[in-house]
Specification:
The complex is a heterodimer of chains A (112) and B (113). In chain A, 34% of the residues are buried. With 112 residues, chain A is mainly β. Chain A contains no helices and 11 strands. By secondary structure, chain B is mostly beta strands. The radius of gyration of chain B is 13 Å and the shape is globular. The N and C termini of chain B lie far apart (32 Å). The A-B interface holds A 4, 31-32, 34, 36, 41-46, 49, 89, 91, 93, 97-104 and B 4, 6, 40-43, 45, 48, 50, 55, 57, 88, 90, 92, 98-99, 101-107, 109.
Chain lengths: 112, 113
């Protein structure tokens, strides 16, 4: 059974700092990996999707990498802003499964 | 309306009530999903409708009943719920299957008294 772990559970950084969020998964037979952002009490916003054949994806100040063989992904946020404060979720789509498996998320606070 | 919409946004119900959650997607997608998000737990997939095939998580109690009349609309019918069913219920859609990028609605915050 696929398990997804996100470390740390919470992170607080000063504005302007670059930061890295980590995601690990136990079964490397994935189809793709998706990073989401969730604001308190709200739905999820898709940030980046990386196919299993890709190594990274970039969108603005966000860069996500994927190392399928080691079961790891990172989300790099450059020049963090208070508006980046949210919970960031990682989810993997298993090659032999019908669903996304989510981690519990990392709650990010960017302090002005 | 654009994206994925959900109504109502908040719902309080007693254990003997019957209610329904509604989801509508305006993205031209062919797959829709119901997820449950409880405090301090990962998102849990409840039901999938993908290319007219329904797949469900076997751990979902029968007091939750999905309905997908067409590719744009999805309902979750609720009856005789328990307080532990209180959670944020999220709807999502994707182009064809669970392998495609999923887009989420804002959720319905459900409280069962």
């Amino acid at each position: 059974k696929q398990e997804v772990t996100q470390i740390p559970a919470a992170l607080s950084v000063p504005e302007g700092e670059n930061l890295v969020l980590n995601c690990s998964f136990t079964d490397s037979a994935i189809y793709n990996l998706q990073w989401f952002r969730q604001d308190p009490g709200k739905g999820l916003t898709s940030l980046l999707l990386i196919q299993s054949s890709q190594r990274e994806q970039t969108s603005g100040r966000l860069n996500a990498s994927l190392d399928k063989s080691s079961g790891r992904s990172t989300l790099y946020i450059a020049a963090s802003q208070p508006g980046d404060s949210a919970t960031y979720l990682c989810a993997v789509s298993g090659a032999g499964s019908y669903q996304l498996t989510f981690g519990k998320g990392t709650k990010l606070s960017v302090i002005p | 309306e654009t994206g994925v919409t959900q109504t109502p946004r908040h719902l309080v119900m007693g254990m003997t009530n019957k209610k329904s959650l509604k989801c509508e997607q305006h993205l031209g997608h062919n797959a829709m999903y119901w997820y449950k998000q409880s405090a301090k737990k990962p998102l849990e997939l409840m039901f999938v409708y993908s290319l007219e095939e329904r797949v469900e998580n076997n751990s979902v109690p029968s007091r939750f009943s999905p309905e997908c009349p067409n590719s744009s609309h999805l309902f979750l019918h609720l009856h005789t719920l328990q307080p532990e069913d209180s959670a944020l219920y999220l709807c999502a859609s994707s182009q064809y299957t669970w392998r495609d990028e999923q887009f989420f609605g804002p959720g319905t915050r459900l409280t069962v008294l």
